């Protein structure tokens, strides 16, 4: 019954996130294209999508240090709900295009993002153990990333011409705001995680085999709890394992920037893609979502076999190979100045929509490889420090994303791909090293069992 309730909590969390981010990820995917069309209709509006996204992730990175303190006073469910409300407000702000409002709501969204993602990490861990963490992370990722389908499929049919007029924009904004609002209502039904008791060797379960999450004691004074949570996060960040893993986190932030805000818009800006190139922005998002869902489903359904037989490093290695294919195909298929606006510049080969969609699929699948294994590793490695661990993951990721969005306004496509190529090597190596050391230390700490002391059991038992 406990595990049934915990799994139901994971499903509510997953579907709530799916709806909220069906709105936000679609908006992030089309923001550059949409703001460019608004500027054509209203030259007084100069809001820039990359600047908006940079503000989101800059504030996100700062607030990740404060999110564990907030959660220590309110709990993860309140933090998740508060963050979801910020997403609704951000999307609704596009009805009134104004530079100050755009950047102000971007900052508010950065605060909400820190709360919803740190709360998500703790809540997912509270409803999982070392046997179910990898499965739950994979299921969450598959359902969550299916958000790419609905919103981007809608955009594909609405943005079916070169010019995106005001009426079409209003339709998109209305649908996305409604989606985010429904997702927030779903998250309001999140229930408290079931109480979990530690099973010792007397009950037949070794702590080395199954480590169960124990709720942290509630501190009496909220301000003391908030300060202690901040100190705990700082101490955890300075540990060798977390510092090394930060290289992996940084790479996921850079590639998040690329696939969510740069790549799909670049496809739509490439004139050689044809008259329907604007609709390819939504189609690219759909293929990214397909890759995310397939990757999450594979490593969720097969999570127990993968983690038992070969750990997470081979999965990350698959992500490395898939992302390298994506980077090479994008380098050949799109012109260097595609991120900045409509361009007649030619690529190294004749630009192909089919190859562009293959790149989208590869970006999504590789991203799922990295993120599902990071969630799994953090949920098991830092089971009693889940809030600060996930906050630090999101801190490093959002700092990298903010920096990447900042230089995306000036750096051509080839420079961005070079940065991704370098950081993926270091990030993959860092993950492999940490997981290898963790596995080695567990093997050394696990005592050998004398076969003569093991009581045989009959088949009837």
What structural keywords apply?
2 domains; single chain; Growth Hormone, Chain: A; 461 residues; mainly alpha; disordered C terminus
Give a description of the structure:
The chain is mainly alpha-helical and about 450 residues long. The protein is about 75% helix and about 0% strand. The chain has 16 helices and no strands. The chain has helices spanning about 1-40, 50-65, 65-75, 75-90, 100-125, 135-145, 145-160, 165-185, 220-235, 240-270, 280-300, 305-310, 315-335, 355-380, 385-410, 415-445. It is globular and about 60 Å long. The two termini are about 25 Å apart.
Mean pLDDT: 80
Our count of domains comes out at: 2
Task: Compute the CA-based radius of gyration.
Answer: 23 Å
- In CATH terms, what is the architecture of the largest domain? Up-down Bundle
Please identify the structural class as seen in this structure. mainly alpha
GO cellular component, one term: membrane
Subcellular location: Membrane
Transmembrane segments: 7-27, 47-66, 78-95, 139-159, 171-190, 242-260, 280-303, 315-334, 346-366, 413-434
Membrane topology: Multi-pass membrane protein
Summed up:
The chain contains 16 helices and no strands.
Question: What is the secondary structure topology, with strand pairs?
Answer:
Elements: H1 2-41, H2 49-63, H3 67-74, H4 76-92, H5 99-126, H6 133-145, H7 147-158, H8 166-187, H9 222-237, H10 240-269, H11 279-301, H12 303-309, H13 313-333, H14 353-381, H15 386-408, H16 413-445
